[in-house]
Design goal:
The complex is a heterodimer of chains A (116) and B (112). Chain A is mainly β. In chain A, strands 2, 4, 5, 6, 9, 10 and 11 form a seven-stranded mixed β-sheet that branches. A four-stranded antiparallel β-sheet of chain A has the order 1-3-8-7, with no helix packed on it. The mean pLDDT of chain A is 90. Chain B has no helices and eleven strands. In chain B, strands 2, 4, 5, 9, 10 and 11 form a six-stranded mixed β-sheet that branches. The N and C termini of chain B lie far apart (41 Å). At the A-B interface, β4, β5 and β9 of A face β5, β9 and β10 of B.
């Protein structure tokens, strides 16, 4: 089946530093990848939609300059949290879709970010 | 604004009980309704429902969609401790990017 990986699984960083999270589709090419954030006991909130080779589409209220998304290839998207603050601490999950109109999204295992 | 509302938010039952989880939605451009199970990490897919009145079944889990009432239920019969998880309902939208909007989830805990 379709597998999506994320790296790292968890990361602790100091306030003010930047952190990059990778999302890879391992056995399929993902035309679209989605980035979600999940706070404790909350649901998944879509942050942005990333199409290969084009700029990401950010949801309302998500700062594009703070959460930089790059989808440079059909198997890799990266999310960089710039100048991280403690309130950015969260569980970040990506999902990938194989074809433009495919319904199924495959989720990565998530990355837990803690900013101290 | 598109929204997905789940109830109850939290549920504790004994092993062997049957539970029903509810999901209602108000969205524009509905395409499908999805159910996921989330344990410690990312959600795992359970069901996708597109048509009204057709029950989908997988073992002890079943789900049905009512597109007239904008509602879906997820049933779990003969619950086991391994069913303890957060169950997420989501709606797949029919728009340019086919976004998924998630509900807040129902936290289910099964007591042995």
């Amino acid at each position: 089946g379709a597998v999506v990986s994320q790296h790292p699984s968890w990361v602790i960083c100091k306030s003010g530093t930047s952190v990059k999270i990778e999302c890879r589709s391992l056995d399929f090419q993902a035309t679209t990848m989605f980035w979600y954030r999940q706070f404790p006991k909350q649901s998944l909130m879509l942050m942005a939609t990333s199409n290969e080779g084009s700029k990401a589409t950010y949801e309302q209220g998500v700062e594009k300059d703070k959460f930089l998304i790059n989808h440079a290839s059909l198997t890799l998207s990266t999310l960089t949290v710039t100048s991280a603050h403690p309130e950015d601490s969260s569980f970040y999950i990506c999902s990938a879709r194989e074809a433009p109109r495919a319904r199924e999204q495959y989720f990565g295992p998530g990355t837990r970010l803690t900013v101290t | 604004e598109d929204k997905v509302v789940q109830s109850p938010l939290s549920l504790v039952v004994h092993e062997g009980d049957t539970v029903t989880l509810n999901c209602s939605y108000e969205v524009t451009n509905f395409r499908s309704l999805l159910w996921y199970k989330q344990e410690k990490k990312a959600p795992t897919f359970l069901f996708m429902l597109t048509s009204s009145g057709i029950e989908k079944k997988s073992g002890r889990l079943s789900s049905i969609l009512d597109k007239k009432e904008l509602f879906s239920i997820l049933n779990i019969t003969a619950t086991q401790t391994g069913d303890s998880a957060i169950y997420l309902c989501a709606v797949l939208l029919m728009n340019r990017d086919d976004k998924i909007i998630f509900g807040k989830g129902t936290r289910l805990h099964i007591l042995p």
